[in-house]
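Q: A reviewer asked whether we had any structural model of the full assembly, not just the individual parts. We don't, so I'm hoping you can provide one. Inputs are below.
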Amino acid sequence: MSPLSTDELVVSRELPGDDGSVLLGSASRRRGDTLFRGVALGAGLVVLFVLALIAASTTKEAWPAFQQEGLSFVTSSTWIPSEGKYGALAFIYGTILSSLIAVVLAVPVSLGIALYANEAAPRRLRRPVVYVMDLLAAIPSVVYGLWGIIVLAPAIKPVYEAINGAVGGVPVLGWFFNGTSGRSFMTAGIILAIMITPIITSLSREVIATVPSAQREAAYGMGATRWEMIRAAVLPWSRGGITGAVMLGLGRAMGETIAVALVIGSQAQITTHLFEAGDSMAAVIVNQFGESSGNHRSALIGLGVVLFIVTILVNVSARSIVARFDRRSRGM
Amino acid sequence: MPDDEQTRRSSLNPVTDEDIPNAEVSPMSSETLPATSITPTTAAAPVAARAAEIASDASAPNVVFDVRDLNVFYGAFKAVRDVNLSVHKHEITAFIGPSGCGKSTVLRCFDRMNDLIESARVEGQVLYHGVDLYDPRIDPVEVRKRIGMVFQKPNPFPKSIYDNIAFGPKISGSKENLDDVVEKALRQAALWDEVKDRLKKSAMGLSGGQQQRLCIARAIAVEPEVILMDEPCSALDPIATARIEDLMQELKSEYTILIVTHNMQQAARVSDRTAFFTTEVNPESDTRTGMLVEFDSTNTIFSAPSDERTENYVTGRFG
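A: Here is a predicted structure for the entire assembly that you could use as a starting point for your response.
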């Protein structure tokens, strides 16, 4: 007797005792499963392999610079290729500072858009809102950079000057809102904020859409207004996912190259003054790589390695934050 | 006695439009609604011109809800038609009937939860102490503070046990000490002893039955007058179900409870009055509209129903 399919098994109600073969299943169907598992595993391994390859080859290329500078590659901020000095701290600082500004600016806006599109907008407006946000994500970063350098930087300079004039001398506020350069950490942060808003919005929106209606009803059922419902049901439920979205946005901001290179001002300095020019790792690489050679080139690749490591650290910490939220809300 | 109530209810004249504004102000603005606050004055009101209103109030000192000619639509589809019933203070009123008969839909009219469904539309009146909950001036948020709801599946917020209970008092601006409110609500819901040492732990770690009692505690923390329960035990095992049923009996002295259940034995065990709903097929569209068949004391519904359809249902011949 040939092996039976499940349908036939149900219809004929054949007992396994009659002929054990009914429970043995079909070898060809099992082969499909094995094949699928193999392909999926292969795809997963390819990613790891490529990652390892990139890490290994860039580290190898960067090795001469690392060897020459030692720890001062990441602790010194003196970067003078003509004298053979490669201290990347100012660039690491610039990358982190401009990305943090971007996140601080983008998160409230993104959450606002996501909540509006999911909770508050009239039904016929929801699709257009989402559509426009997705369009924003499709604009190439060089376009953002050009817009930043041609339109934003000159237009925002008077604003910086005004703020600087108003609070530049005030303690605490003056530490940050100081300087008058159109191309600055702040301008880079603003451009980055615009660039990462779509990704944070779209991921948050998807997370928010998964909040069970039972949660919303629970809050409404107790006499919550819409905002109280969002605070009690929507935000706690999607906290982990929104954190993940923010971290992805942060990762994207740190890796962004050309737009930042155009507007950050290309000056290696560590300062709390947000309206002064700075530089970031990715921007330095793209600005200097073309005319570099020898140890300079190796130092630039070293910047890439550091950027890679910082990005991984951010991602790992993002995951652990998400996991902690999830564990807590599951009651463990 | 309940039979009398029922017959008197059905002989009532419908209220005229003008007594809605009159009745609207006092009950909705007072913080809670003590049982005695309305009856004596209105019952003693003399004038014959307001006969309809006096009749309504005099016959119903304990009536919390009076539903008149209620129809609910989803878009063009009529989900439930012509529901007339009254809900009495400190009683448990059960809605039973086969799937799709509209019992949950009707329950959700008592706290305007149907508002959350965009296509839903309600005709007729749901009078809460004489105030039509569907009057355009009524704020559903205020309605839901006074009329709490417990849902089919336990739905605690993914927060701590404490924060789950404290949410309602916080948003309604309670002046009381939150710790006391939380303890009182948990004690009333017979959950305090089980959770008092883990108030800061997530509510998601509780068992299903505990979660549902937490949801009841959460609902009573805002001190509503009425608790609506939409199949509160359908996701629970028999032991957890028995605990919830015991709890309902205890809560009855302080709250008025409406429960939708698909479990006839549950209705028979816990309720004082029972409404039996069924569906009828609309011949032209092949859709089903729910309707109230019979509303009476639970004893009558289960032992001597006056409608044949009720008898068939409660004896298990149908549904």
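A: Points you may want to mention in the reply: Residues 77-157+224-315 of chain B form a domain with the Rossmann fold fold (CATH 3.40.50.300). The radius of gyration of chain B is 20 Å.
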